[in-house]
Design goal:
Oligomer: heterodimer
Strand content of chain B: under 5%
Shape of chain A: globular
Strand content of chain A: under 5%
Order of helices and strands of chain A: HHHHHEEEHHHHEHHHHHH
Order of helices and strands of chain B: HHHHEEHHHHHHH
Number of helices of chain B: 11
Largest interface: A-B, 42 and 44 residues
Number of helices of chain A: 15
Number of strands of chain B: 2
Distance between the termini of chain A: 50 Å
Number of strands of chain A: 4
Radius of gyration of chain B: 19 Å
Largest sheet of chain A: 2 strands, antiparallel
Chain lengths: 342, 287
């Protein structure tokens, strides 16, 4: 109970800080933060598949479907933002179910490779269907987002919208993960054969997790379309899909907060290189090195870093007062390890 | 489509297929033994092409020598990756995958400052045209086919006739049992990394005189190789060869008829349909 109060207080503080930052940060930071929030939604929505043990490297495909659907609905048919966002998300879900149904019976690496095919298939369809999507010329002139007929003209207002979307989606995902449904997903992720033998309809639950993930990826895509207001097929490529996956692993896939920390950290990271053109090209290099170091030295992700650090300090604090000799005599070593010949 | 155009497309498809096969063989070998997908394969293909660009194109080393150099250098890179990435992670499939993605991103990103942002070109190695049944085929595309056949035969003999090859097959069947029989699993895995990387470098080196070079050039061949090994069945070497031949023909004939992008799309749709009816691929052993 006490830790729950602490968590809620911490979250409230973070939320207030974000609101304050958006209000005072100006257009630049509002733009950046909105994109960070979009990445957080994407990373967390992928988490559902990861819970079921499905390695999905194709999430940007569904973001693309959501983005293009919403943009085209609003631009060509004048559909209001709320409905076009919903339309984008729903079509992303439908496409996700159609593609996921045949492929979700594959496991692990096999599934991962098929999802790579998803990304490319969707990207190529968007690229070829020039009459609808304008292909490689890019789709521009997408209307700004609006709420209840009120157009959000400034980046700051749009950033509040992104924050709102993120908070709502994270709440839903949190509730899902800690519900009975979340338990079933985790059981599938840990031992799907066992879950199957206990009467869990593994295929249906995997598809459900996948479809919900696609829905929120579609929401993120739709917001992105109306926020950036220019869509280009290669934006939603394999690289973006791997980034979404990487957010989960760098943040820590073992915890609900992992993808959030990972997405926020890695999306903010390039800021270090802002300004000078000379360092700009090292942005991706630094990104890759961070990724690699985290995987090699923090297998649990960044989320485990505070715990590890406090462990380290505690151990150091404990070891200081005891002045026991660090070098053991051979006899002591045998006593600890047991008789090597025994 | 006239007969002449069909024959031309088929020969070009065969030469494309040869490149795909060289890419896919390394992937499928490494998958069979270690159950990892080597995402670095595309970056290695790119590096192979750049070795040719510098040694052959810039510094005037003979092409054959530069070709072997590409295979040796990148084979060594394979050993390094096995030692520094694969082994420390201890076979965790997903962390390995993310780490390999990180290596790929790193190599590609560092390519821009190192190689420059402009597209590079390598001078033609095999000049002239050959005439097959009255159809002209450029020599450099045609020459890929015999070189690929030699490399594939070499790999076949290595895997089936040498002690190291037997160790590889043993690991593929059962890693623990192989280790109990005295196979040094780490060394053999490193060798598989080396062989796989060398083959990818070879395909990059063969393609260097034909296509323009840039740090992202490996992405498309990597995706092709993915399709091939799903098509042929993950871990299956005959499957990779057959898959490569099929995809080469699709890419050449369908691209001539409908354009490049529809051909690529068709291969992805084909994969998704194949998975519906035969999830193991053409030669696969397991799902």
């Amino acid at each position: 109970m006490k830790s729950k109060i602490r968590t809620v207080t911490l979250l409230a503080v973070v939320l207030l800080a974000l609101l304050l930052f958006i209000a005072l940060g100006g257009n630049y930071y509002a733009h950046l933060l909105a994109l960070v929030f979009t990445n957080v939604i994407l990373a967390s929505s992928l988490r559902l598949s990861i819970l079921c043990g499905q390695l999905n490297i194709g999430h940007s495909a569904f973001m693309s479907v959501g983005a293009y659907t919403s943009a085209l609905l609003a631009k060509n048919l004048g559909v209001p933002f709320e409905l076009s966002l919903l339309g984008g998300a729903l079509l992303a879900t439908v496409v996700g179910i159609v593609m996921g149904y045949p492929s979700l019976r594959l496991r692990g690496v096999y599934f991962a490779m098929v999802t790579v095919a998803f990304v490319e298939a969707i990207r190529l369809i968007v690229q070829i269907w020039v009459s609808l999507t304008r292909g490689m010329s890019g789709l521009s002139g997408i209307p700004k987002p609006s709420l209840l007929g009120m157009v959000l003209t400034t980046k700051t207002d749009q950033c509040y919208l992104a924050l709102g979307l993120m908070v709502v989606i994270l709440l839903i995902l949190y509730k899902l993960e800690y519900s009975r449904l979340g338990l079933i997903w985790k059981s599938i992720g840990m031992a799907d054969n066992l879950a199957l033998s206990l009467g869990v309809n593994v295929a249906a639950y995997k598809l459900l997790a996948f479809a919900i993930g696609c829905f929120f990826a579609g929401v993120a895509g739709a917001f992105y379309a109306h926020f950036v207001r220019f869509l280009f097929p290669p934006t939603f490529d394999f690289l973006m899909a791997t980034n979404i996956l990487v957010y989960n692993y760098v943040g820590g896939r073992g915890h609900f907060w992992g993808p959030i920390v990972g997405a926020a950290f890695l999306s903010w990271l390039p800021e270090i290189f802002r300004g000078s053109e000379a360092t700009r090209q090292y942005e991706t290099i630094f990104f890759a090195i961070t990724m690699l170091l985290t995987i090699l030295f923090l297998p649990g992700g960044l989320i485990t870093l505070p715990g590890k650090l406090s462990d380290l300090f505690r151990r150091r604090a404990e070891s200081v007062p005891s002045s026991a000799p660090t070098v053991m005599t051979p006899g002591q070593r045998v006593a600890i390890q047991g008789n090597p010949k025994g | 489509m006239t007969l002449a155009l069909l024959i031309q497309s088929m020969v070009i498809g065969l030469s494309l297929g040869s490149i795909y096969i060289l890419m896919a063989l390394g992937l499928t070998l490494m998958f069979g033994m270690m159950h990892i997908i080597n995402f670095t394969h595309g970056a290695v293909y790119m590096l192979g092409a750049f070795v040719i660009y510098y040694f052959f194109g810039q510094w005037g080393v003979p092409y054959v020598l530069a070709f072997f150099l590409a295979m040796i250098l990148l084979g060594a890179f394979g050993f390094v990756i096995e030692r520094c990435i694969y082994r420390p992670i201890k076979g965790g499939i997903e962390p390995t995958l993310v780490a390999l993605i990180a290596v790929t991103t790193f190599v590609q990103a560092i390519g821009y400052p190192v190689f420059g942002t402009l597209d590079k070109h390598v001078p033609t190695v095999f000049h002239g045209m050959y005439s097959i049944l009255g159809v002209g085929i450029s020599a450099e595309r045609l020459m890929i086919i015999p070189i690929a056949i030699v490399l594939v035969l070499g790999l076949y003999l290595f895997i089936n006739k040498t002690k190291m090859g037997a160790a590889m097959r043993a690991i593929e069947q059962d890693k623990e049992a192989a280790a109990l029989q005295g196979v040094n699993v780490n060394v053999v895995n490193a060798l598989a990394f080396g062989v796989g990387f060398a083959l990818a470098a070879a395909s990059g080196a063969l393609m260097a005189p034909i296509f323009k070079l840039d740090p992202m050039m490996g992405e498309q061949p990597l995706l092709k190789a993915f399709i091939i090994i799903i098509l042929g069945g993950l871990g299956s070497i005959p499957g990779a060869i057959l898959g490569g031949l099929i995809l080469g023909q699709i890419d050449s004939i369908v691209a001539t008829l409908l354009g490049l992008e529809p051909a690529f799309l068709l291969s992805f749709v084909f994969i998704i349909l194949l998975l519906l009816f035969k999830p193991t691929g053409l030669f696969g052993h397991e799902v």
